[in-house]
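TICKET #2291
ISSUE: user wants both folds in one file
ATTACHMENT 1:
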Amino acid sequence: MGFDRSGLPSTVTVRPYLFDHMRILITGGAGFVGSQLAVRFREQAGAEVVAFDNLRRRGAELNLPLFRSLGIGFVHGDIRQLADLDDLSGAFDLVIDASAEPSVLAGFDGSPQYVLQTNLVGTLNCLEFARRRSGGFVFLSTSRVYSIAPLRSIGLIEAPTRFELDEIQSVSGVGPTGIDEAFPTHLPRSLYGATKLASELIVQEYAAMYGLPAVINRCGVIAGAGQFGKVDQGIFTLWVAHHHFGRPLTYTGFGGSGKQVRDLLHPADLYALLTRQIDALGQLSGGVFNVGGGRGCSTSLVELTALCREATGREVPVGSQADSASVDVPLYLSNTDAVHAATGWRPSRTAGDIVGEIADWLRTEETSLKPLFT
């Protein structure tokens, strides 16, 4: 059934938190989300931050000079190896687990070992480290924990530029504003989603059994400048980059119309939420929240193409392929009512804001970014 809020206060009073007295470990800290959070906790909150990353994803190494300039510590290690975490010095006030193999296609073309070891064993190692040497734990999960078959059976209306939610729905956990925490998770959802869902359960057990204050955020698509997008992860940044560099695109799946919809979340909005959650971690411990842009910060591929043309001033050919991959879904919108009720948080940025920021980044850093996107 998802997260039951009956044991939590209906609202949380958020007070200013003295982050400058905190020592924060961010696993996956050189990746897109981890690095964005590391910079904000250091620059805006004054926290001592250590970023821990195996640098497997291309482009992550470009964040290291920025870390050095800001005084963010960096440790090259792998969460699959508990010994690498144990080599870290000292204790931490908080562990933010932003590490993951984030591709929903992981394991489809061969061995599932990396996604299983990283997203499941790696989380267990992070939790065990946090149990012994941290005062709290924030787990960044994913909307991909929700089962694919129910997501594909959501009632939709085909509007001119996107699919919209029908007023009548036969699946629990879906309403006018999107998908909430009661949406089904009991059917297949990809190895990526399965490992994150299994990790959520273990996080809750550590919170209950060991008293480790912990919160779980099921994030929708996170996008913004600094993301080195690929087809299977970071597609919105890739879409902007293809416009900037003049490369063709394809509307794939669901008839090839480009009307499939996702909501977007900017890292700055995620950071704003985490500051609220951390300040009330004891009250929120064990909670699971949908975190995303919702209907107000969402786009279809057709609408995204229009935003990209406006932001870059360029038009590229867009093809069409009707067939859908087995893991594709036509629409996902985060219902964030639960996290709003608990913390007062709402995202503030629009899809247009995010696309514009990415386009500016590509223009400014074109020389260094072109090899990564072309």
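ATTACHMENT 2:
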Amino acid sequence: MEELREQTRLGRATISEAARLLIERGTVDVRPGRGGGLFVAEAGHVVRLRHTLLAAGQDAAGVANALAVRDALEELIDTDAARHRTVQDIDDLQVIIRRMRAEATTRETFMRDNWELHSRIAEITPNDLARNVYLSTMAQAVGLPSHADDATAADEEAYLASRLEIHAELVDAIASGDVAR
């Protein structure tokens, strides 16, 4: 630690805090005693997961893989939300649905509000790992242009209305605590 402080000319508190954060993230190990110090940690499961998520590019395959993982976690996230929601959670979700009803007239505005809704639902779960993986995989696709396929391009308004009703039903199920629904 002293060597790092001398090399960087940073204060002891700054070096200690940086080391603490690196230790918490599993990036470094501290080995006490003679010959000890800070050493690069062997990549554990969490570190490998972080690297995988960071390496998943914005290419089509990376986005498709991220969305497949997100979709697999969807039921867990949604049922946890139904079990653990608070009055504030319900209010927040209903505000987003009302905004979607008022503003989601294009696929782009719908997707923006859709991502916000799903992110807010994910915040409800007490399962930190599921929430973080879900949000990280979702982040791979947020902001990408969404292109209509031929089947939905013909009637964009009807498509958006049906998707909105599916999401409103999800919020109603969460609000009522109806896990099966």
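RESOLUTION: both attachments delivered.
EXTRA DETAIL ON ATTACHMENT 2: The longest strand covers residues 28-31.
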